[in-house]
Amino acid sequence: MAENEDILVNVENGVGVVTLNRPKAINSLNHVMVTGLADALTAWEHDDSVRAVLLTGAGERGLCAGGDVIALYHSAKAGDDNARTFWHDEYLLNAHIGRYSKPYVSLMDGIVMGGGVGVGAHGNIRVVTEKTKLGMPEVGIGFIPDVGGTYLLSRAPGLIGLHAALTGAPFSGADAIALGFADHFVPQADLAAFRDLVISDGPDAALAKYAIEPPASELLAQQHWIDQCYAANTVAEILENLRGHEAAEANAAADLIATRSPIALTVTLEAVRRAAKLPTLEDVLTQEFRVSMASHKSHDFVEGIRAQLVDKDRNPQWSPANLSDCTTADVDAYFVSADPDLTF
Fold it and tell me: What pTM did the predictor assign?
């Protein structure tokens, strides 16, 4: 396998090892990587010589910083079908990972954002470290959490998932375990040895030797004010609650939310609430596909990526500019059929 390929796939001692291999881009997912991982998982699932899967990212910075949103930006500008194809195949992959029949070990070290959550946090053995920075930062680019993110966010304790969704702020490995995005904590210094032991002796032996009790979750310790502030009906009321709270963290959350796309925030609130009522990951991914396809046609998706990643002026001009200008009809339009919808 050529080392310059975007995804490296091989079998070592009965373990299917997948390395996301775009370290300069913190392994951001492109279509080649999505199809490569999907094809490998399909082949290995019915291959008795493969007993487990191990997902890791090349380089020192993280497993995966998300999807290749610059490509999605160009697709939106051109009005072509590339984004639809990418999301369609990515969400099918997320669902496959969620129901995978063999041990699927994801090493969620360093940065794990957006699409990285999709390939990492639906596995059945999810490992984080003290260096993990996990998050769903979509509202900062005028987008809405996807890749099954709203499934996980809506099932986090209390309203912590809503806090993570609306701020878009990253959280720690300990928080990831508390929120249901991860299962096991391994010190980063032991990660290479953990990986080797998964390959030589299997996941159970590696976990028994290297997994430790995670540190206390800072987010879980703040659940009291989070649950109070985020219980409001609208984003505007949530902001009011946060600004009026004595906790410094609540005021900081308000400042962060105030920089985000008003329509993306409003749709995200609705998406997480609807996801809570949907029974399966597949049902939520079908909803997310609708929302993503609607986002693809929106002003804020193109503008948010432009401001953060293309021109990098960090000064997005959101439209609507204010939460008060986001109507119920605007929000409902994000949840109509993607025609054709995602099917499994």
Answer: 0.97
